[in-house]
């Protein structure tokens, strides 16, 4: 995922400024402890996708984290930043609220689909933190380390798995796999994964072609296709998981999921 550039726009407590000039105090517990919440919203041609869904999830995250949140200010500042980005902007907007009371939004570029490297997943053992269920917090150190471990092992991204062999998700994306070449399954929320908005929308859009189901590392040997899904990826094909080769090109199930999701986004933004 691309990060903000030096000339990117930001908003800090209601003031729009270059991202390079936005700063918070070093005593803010959002920095010291990763104590805060965040959302990343896709903006396509100046329009935010699933805007209300992201606001609701941020409110839930803040409530569960016992973090004071002025949701009205968050909404106003998000809309102001998106408007400042311009009517043709296609980007991601990251919005954070820290324990120190700072509200920070940053416009981040998106990587064009044809510029994204093939996804070679490497399984990395991970134990979800139960107390953070239902919270999209700033505490992503373990997720970022998992990606680095995967890269060290020759992959491009991690696939988080439990010590008992249950497949969870990627560090910043939901995981979908097809075992029959027609339908896809994704691990259930009861396995303590993030309630991803893209995941939720895909399950709805695909209908009876998608379902929640426990996925094990052992079962991955039967995989015919797999893909990751998130705000910054949309639907991105996986070409390998450890030593399992899934083919160099997106398969028909992945292509259909990507097309269905793109149509869903277009319909919502067109409305």
Major sheet details: 6 strands, antiparallel
| Overall pLDDT level | 95
How much helix is in the residues? 25-40%
Which spans have pLDDT < 50 for at least 5 consecutive residues?
none
SSE ordering = EEHEEHHEEEHEEEHEEEEH
Alpha-carbon distance between the termini? 28 Å
What's the gist of this structure?
With 271 residues, the protein is α+β, with helices and mostly antiparallel strands. The chain is built from 6 helices and 14 strands.
Task: Describe what this molecule looks like in 3D.
- The protein has 271 residues and is α+β, with helices and mostly antiparallel strands.
- Helix content is 27%, strand content 27%.
- It has a six-stranded antiparallel β-sheet with strand order 2-1-6-5-3-4. Strands 7, 8, 9, 12, 13 and 14 form a six-stranded mixed β-sheet that branches. The chain has a two-stranded parallel ribbon with strand order 10-11.
- Helix 5 (197-206) links the parallel strand 10 and strand 11.
- The longest helix is centred in the last third of the chain and has 19 residues, at 252-270.
- The chain starts with 8 loop residues before the first strand and ends with a helix.
